[in-house]
Design brief:
Chain A: Part of the ABC transporter complex UgpBAEC involved in sn-glycerol-3-phosphate (G3P) import. Probably responsible for the translocation of the substrate across the membrane. Chain A: It comes from Caldovatus sediminis. Chain A: The complex is composed of two ATP-binding proteins (UgpC), two transmembrane proteins (UgpA and UgpE) and a solute-binding protein (UgpB). Chain A: Residues 71-283 form the ABC transmembrane type-1 domain. The complex is a heterodimer of chains A (293) and B (362). Chain A has 293 residues and is an all-alpha fold. Chain A has one domain (64-289): MetI-like (MetI-like fold, Orthogonal Bundle), CATH 1.10.3720.10. Helix content of chain A is 72%, strand content 2%. Chain A is built from twelve helices and two strands. Chain A has a two-stranded antiparallel ribbon. In chain A, a hairpin with a 6-residue loop joins strand 1 and strand 2. Chain A is globular and about 75 Å long. Chain A starts with 10 loop residues before the first helix and ends with a helix. Chain B folds into two domains: 4-227, Rossmann fold, CATH 3.40.50; 237-350, Nucleic acid-binding proteins (OB fold (Dihydrolipoamide Acetyltransferase, E2P)). Helix content of chain B is 23%, strand content 32%. Chain B is built from eight helices and 20 strands. Chain B has helices at residues 42-50, 92-102, 107-121, 136-148, 166-183, 194-200, 218-223, 228-233; strands at residues 4-13, 16-26, 31-35, 57-62, 65-66, 77-80, 154-158, 186-191, 203-208, 211-216, 240-247, 252-255, 260-262, 275-280, 286-287, 295-304, 308-314, 320-326, 336-340, 347-350. Chain B has a six-stranded mixed sheet with strand order 6-7-8-3-9-10, with helices on both faces. Chain B has a five-stranded antiparallel sheet with strand order 13-12-11-14-20. In chain B, a hairpin with a 2-residue loop joins strand 4 (57-62) and strand 5 (65-66). In chain B, helix 2 packs across helix 3 (107-121) and helix 3 (107-121) packs across helix 4. Classes of the chains: A mainly alpha (293), B alpha+beta (362).
Chain lengths: 293, 362
């Protein structure tokens, strides 16, 4: 039930909105404004003076082979994280949707990883995959596979993808499960009576009916992989080895905080901001307008 | 086309039994309607035939072959669901073609069969639409079309008309009957609506608390209900029931209210004073003419329907009683009207078991 509240004056409604507006102003518009301002300035090495350089910072960033490396890393990383997290979550949700004993406990366990902080998650995976103290890492080496993600860039990438995807599976699982449960049972029964085997039924009926959920999750997962995986990467690989796992968000940190190239780092954040705005716009459009059936 | 046979079909959900052994044989091309109040197990029975539920005991045979262990997909049965269960992301054409595609019917033939069926149902113009762009009646037709186009051995209908408005329901009812006759497909139709059951079925299965209370033609069920449940369920307004005792060596019933009514068709078994329930349909009651000795009905509600009037009231013993009299000039509420209960219209039931008591052979 939606009830429309009518206010008499204009003071109260603005007052009620004020906390939200204040939070947005302080934690988004202010830093975003700073970043945009910073992105067109260049500081001297001692931070005493800054001069206006126009789009020079952007030009430099986009021509930097290390930046293009980070773009490529981000593309690989995000695509893999989204694919892995969505695939695993859908598989688990389909299993959990069946009527099985102890489904409640099973579902609760699957939702837990979401509550684990990124750094803690990273440490968990580190204890599994560390070449000398990790359970799996040692087993791999004992089996004759040269496993050391601290030396091998591809292995490092695989590890951060695995850890990041693992953390996101829970979130996707909840949405997929809700999506599956909202498909009318009778539609599936109708398909069964039409002669469709479970696998065929899944691809021709269940999956298409899940497509709005899937689309929403693809956008959310890409956003997650772009922006919320800093902690995992920082704790596991620190962007290494040799910048093999340096993503766009990680490079912003490295250039700004470690290398103190404030102008270049700010320019990168502005680019990232543009990407997230684009992603959000796409999502809003589709979620509001196009339901796929 | 096929025959269907149910042998001792039982079903329990956990410790709760919902079907207590149903036996039924449906002939080739016959339309059998399963009717009963909600919770009587009628839908469960249909779903067991479909293969969507596994029976706890008993067997389902199609054309003499035991299909109990088979999946729904392997039974070659089509079902029309109460909420239609159309595939919302597919066009009407694809909805109807789905089952044929699975059976790897050649494309050209799929097209031909879907178009023929659509024509039969008058939905040719809708083939490109999605289900959500259709009205309730159109969805209903598409659901029928999806079942028909597959040319299955058996049709199952699970209350397919209950989501339609009254006028459309009557229209679709006639249409389903016509189609079923024309296609000659053996059908099971589940409904809670007795009018639907009476008009659609070659035979009825009246279900009550997980048992088949009576399996017979609609006229037989109406004229000779097997027990008080069936008698009260079929017919509108419902049959009147009066407490009575066996009298005159089994040849009459003494109403609790006083009058003694003689049976027209012979004596009932049992000792004098055996407790009975007498049933009289409201439409069989007559207003007593002057000089005739009727049972007085204290009318407390009169419903004029134009061609007839339905009177609700109480008999001297306090029993609620309904009478349906021809014409609109019947008495008003508050009056007392003497009624006659014709002997040939009496149904006699045993008060303990509720079963019908037939006259002893003369």
């Amino acid at each position: 039930m939606r009830r429309r509240v009518i206010f008499r004056g204009k003071v109260l409604p603005y007052l009620l909105l004020a906390p939200q507006i204040a939070v947005t102003l302080v934690f988004f518009f202010w830093p975003a404004g700073q970043a945009i301002r910073q992105s067109v300035l260049r500081e001297d090495p001692f931070g005493l003076r800054s001069e206006f350089v126009g789009l020079e910072n952007f030009r430099e960033v986009l021509a930097d082979p290390l930046y293009l490396n980070a773009v490529w890393n981000t593309a690989v990383f995000s695509a893999a994280v989204a694919a892995l997290a969505l695939g695993a979550a859908l598989f688990l949700a389909v299993l959990a949707d069946k009527q099985i004993r102890g489904a409640g406990a099973y579902k609760t366990l699957l939702i837990w990883p979401y509550a684990v902080a990124p750094a803690v998650a990273a440490v968990l995976w580190l204890f599994l995959f560390h070449p000398s103290i990790g359970l799996v890492g040692r087993a791999l080496n004992a089996a004759g596979i040269a496993w050391d993600y601290k030396l091998n860039g591809a292995q490092a990438m695989a590890l951060v993808i695995l850890a990041s995807a693992w953390k996101q599976v829970s979130y996707n699982f909840i949405f997929f499960l809700a999506g599956l449960q909202s498909i009318p049972r009778s539609v599936l029964e109708a398909a069964a009576m039409d002669g469709a085997r479970p696998a065929y039924r899944f691809w021709t009926v269940v999956f298409p009916l899940l497509s709005p959920t899937t689309f929403f999750l693809v956008v959310v997962n890409l956003t997650y992989a772009f922006f919320d995986t800093f902690g995992v990467i920082h704790a596991l690989t620190g962007g290494g080895p040799g910048k093999a796992t340096e993503t766009l968000i990680y490079k912003v940190y490295v250039d700004g905080v470690q290398n103190l190239n404030l102008g270049g780092s700010a320019a990168q954040s502005v680019i990232l901001m543009a990407i997230v705005i684009a992603l959000t716009a796409v999502q809003f459009r589709h979620v509001e307008r196009r339901v796929h059936y | 086309m096929a025959t269907l046979e149910l042998a001792g079909v039982r079903k329990s959900f956990g410790a709760v039994p919902v079907l207590h052994g149903i036996d039924l044989a449906v002939a080739d091309g016959e339309m059998v309607v399963i009717v009963g109040a909600s919770g009587c197990g009628k839908s469960t029975l249909l779903r067991i035939v479909a293969g969507l539920e596994t029976p706890t005991g008993g067997r389902v045979l199609i054309d003499g072959r035991d299909v109990t262990p088979l999946e729904p997909a392997d039974r070659d049965i089509a079902m029309v669901f109460q909420n239609y269960a159309l595939y919302p992301h597919m066009s009407v054409f694809d909805n109807m073609a789905y089952g044929l595609k699975i059976r790897r019917v050649p494309r050209a033939e799929i097209r031909r069969r879907v178009q023929e069926t659509a024509e039969l149902l008058g939905i040719s113009a809708l083939l490109d639409r999605r289900p959500r762009q259709l009205s309730g009646g159109q969805r209903q037709r598409v659901a029928m079309g999806r079942a028909i186009v597959r040319e299955p051995r058996l049709f199952l209908f699970d209350e397919p008309l209950s989501n339609l408005d009254a006028k459309l329901r009557v229209q679709m009812r006639a249409e389903i009957r016509r189609l079923q006759r024309r296609l000659g497909v053996t059908s099971l139709f589940v409904t809670h609506d007795q009018t639907e059951a009476m008009t659609l079925g070659d035979r009825l299965v009246v279900m009550h608390q997980g048992r088949a209370a009576q399996i017979a033609t609609p006229m037989e069920v109406w004229a000779r209900p097997a027990d008080t449940y069936v008698a009260g369920f079929i017919g509108s307004p419902a049959m009147n029931f009066l407490e009575a005792r066996l009298a005159a060596e089994g040849r009459a019933a003494a109403l609790a209210a006083g009058p003694v009514l003689r049976f027209a068709d012979g004596a009932r078994p049992g000792p004098e004073g055996r407790r009975l329930v007498l049933g009289v349909r409201p439409e069989h009651v007559r207003a007593a003419a002057a000089g005739e000795d009727g049972i007085p009905l204290a009318v407390d509600l009169a419903e004029p329907l134009g061609s007839e009037t339905v009177l609700h009231g109480r008999l001297p013993g306090g029993e609620a009683f309904t009478a349906r009299l021809p014409g609109a000039g019947a008495p008003q509420a508050g009056t007392v009207l003497p009624l006659l209960l014709p002997a040939e219209a009496l149904h006699v039931f045993d008060a303990e078991t509720g079963r019908r008591l037939d006259p002893l052979p003369a």
